[in-house]
Design brief:
single chain, alpha+beta, 6-stranded mixed sheet, 18 helices, 23 strands, EC 6.1.1.1, ATP binding, ATP-binding
């Protein structure tokens, strides 16, 4: 097919649905002379999810346009990015990424023999590459390196030197992979401009850059491996896909930050050229769309119901996922998945893998903060306990069908009026306890400083938080909470010892921040307080 396309037709295929292209004229010039050489790199950190179909479908476009495509499994980058991938798991995660990405490409009909696969450490540890890293380090300022990685490298209060090296290595990859262009998300734009600025200072050519838009996740924010509610894993069962899509952000008529519409636009239309809405005959029956703009227009005008859009995406998505699930049914690949991504609540190695958990020194197997089900809640009512003067009942919305009843003495420190409609943090997997005859279904988390008088404040989630948002410890994002904490094991009591408020009023566990997807958990004034 590519031999029959003109340079202009190839350029259209290469650039369609991209948000931005840097160096477009240079690309056109290359296409007049020969086929384009492009690379896409992925750091082998968290498990790939369905948003990876967006670059996969774009890679299919590149191949249709006759491009020579290299896929880089950036294992060294995964380690440099705040140790998102522990050194001892690097090789296993590369193997997992290679298997799952090849399965994705096969599921959308991309011939693997047209692609070149390479691992970063195959060449990034060579003498010449290492020398170039030092040469680049002598030219790039700390400000430029930090700015370049701001949207890609994990941002922390005290960044490691490794995160500053990350953007420079990605720039050098363009030279060592001998490509004309690098392809990535628009979140990498600052790394791309750093490469354009500094590669010529080393005597290397400036490359072009192709940028995909960032696809919203199911919650309306960026789809992320560390945000369980924002993504669908490639190996999720059909019932899990249905459950996650059912909860997805999809307001009637709202086409902004709609992850489902974005998936239709950037994956389903480029692959199939059409999209079918499945609906009951009494609402007009099935309708096949041949242009995304028609789908978007009908949804904006509320001619397509969110429930029908979700059901139709579910059907199309499961067709893509079925061959991937089937491939990973083999014992070998199931074992690879479990060893590359061990359950942190069950393995001591996983405790050592996370930055925060590393501080624990592995003193007790499985004692990791991800076992705690901490969520954002909203107090919807406060009333006095009928049988205790010092206790009050709070009804708190935690994103479930019914609010939870919490018994606490917080009104002794904060007025009943101040608590009304306040956003707070709750530990939701404690065993319910009866307090003066009324069952408390969760624990309200507060900062406290002992003394006369005792001072207590509720912890504050980041602005814009919603009931049910998950709270996690930075560096320990993976792992699922226990269904119910066993009181005999004293898990909460052992972890709670290391929960403190920093001198900047940020909630921490062993010096690592408590976070939601929107930022840090704080308190108003109790610097150095305990969290209880």
């Amino acid at each position: 097919m590519a031999e029959q396309l003109s340079p202009d037709e190839k350029m259209h295929l290469i650039t369609r649905n991209l948000q931005e292209v840097l160096g477009e004229e240079k690309l056109k010039q290359v296409l007049q002379e020969r086929e384009l050489k492009v690379y896409w790199g992925t750091a082998t950190t968290g498990k790939p999810h369905v948003a990876y179909f967006v670059p996969m479908s774009k890679i299919a476009d590149f191949l249709k346009a006759g491009c020579e495509v290299t896929i880089l499994f950036a294992d060294l980058h995964a380690f440099l990015d705040n140790m998102k991938a522990p050194w001892e798991l690097l090789e296993l995660r590369v193997q997992y990424y290679e298997q799952v990405i090849k399965a994705m490409l096969e599921s959308i009909g991309v011939p693997l023999d047209k692609l070149k696969f390479i691992k970063g450490t195959d060449y990034q540890l060579s003498r010449q590459y290492t020398l170039d890293v030092y040469r680049l380090s002598s030219m790039v300022t700390e400000h430029d390196a930090k700015k370049a990685g701001a949207e890609v490298v994990k941002q922390v209060d005290h960044p490691l030197l490794s995160g500053l090296l990350y953007p420079g290595l990605q720039a050098l990859d363009e030279e060592y992979l001998k490509v004309d262009a690098q392809f990535g998300g628009v979140d990498q734009r600052k790394i791309f401009t750093l490469a354009e600025k500094y590669l010529p200072t080393l005597g290397y050519a400036k490359r072009s850059h192709l940028m995909n838009p960032m696809v919203p996740g199911l919650t309306g924010t960026k789809m992320s491996s560390s945000e369980e509610d924002s993504k669908i894993d490639l190996l999720d069962k059909k019932e899990d896909v249905k459950k996650k899509l059912k909860k997805a952000f999809c307001e009637p008529g709202n086409i902004e930050n709609n992850g489902l519409l974005s998936f239709v636009k950037h994956v389903l239309f480029p692959l199939h050229g059409e999209f079918s809405i499945k609906r009951d005959p009494k609402w007009g029956g099935d309708k096949v769309y041949t242009a995304f703009e028609e789908v978007e227009k009908d949804f904006a005008e509320e001619l397509v119901h969110p429930g029908d859009l979700k059901a139709s995406v579910e059907v199309a998505l499961n067709k893509l996922l079925d061959p991937i699930r089937k491939k990973f049914e083999t014992p070998e690949l199931r074992k690879l998945s479990n060893t590359a991504y061990p359950d942190p609540s069950k393995t001591k190695a996983a405790v050592k893998g996370g930055k925060a958990a590393a501080a624990a020194g592995g003193e007790e197997e499985g004692l990791v903060p991800s076992r705690l089900d901490i969520r954002v809640g909203k107090i919807i009512s406060v009333e006095k306990h009928p049988d205790a003067d010092s206790l009050y009942l709070e009804k708190i919305d935690v994103g479930e069908a019914e609010p939870r009843t919490v018994v606490s003495g917080l009104v002794a420190f904060i007025s009943q009026e101040e608590l009304q409609d306040r956003m707070v943090l709750l530990l939701c997997n404690m065993k319910p306890q009866k307090m003066r005859g009324i069952e408390s279904q969760a624990m309200l988390l507060c900062a406290a400083i002992e003394g006369e008088p005792r001072r207590v404040e509720p912890l504050d989630p980041p602005e814009g938080s919603s009931p049910g948002d998950r709270v996690f410890v930075e560096g320990c994002e993976t792992g699922k909470p226990d269904d119910k904490l066993n009181p005999k094991k004293k898990v909460w009591e052992k972890l709670q010892v290391d929960l403190k408020v920093s001198g900047e009023c940020v909630a921490q566990w062993k010096d690592q921040h408590l976070m939601t997807k929107l930022g840090q958990v704080t308190c108003k004034t109790l610097k150095g307080g305990n969290i209880c």
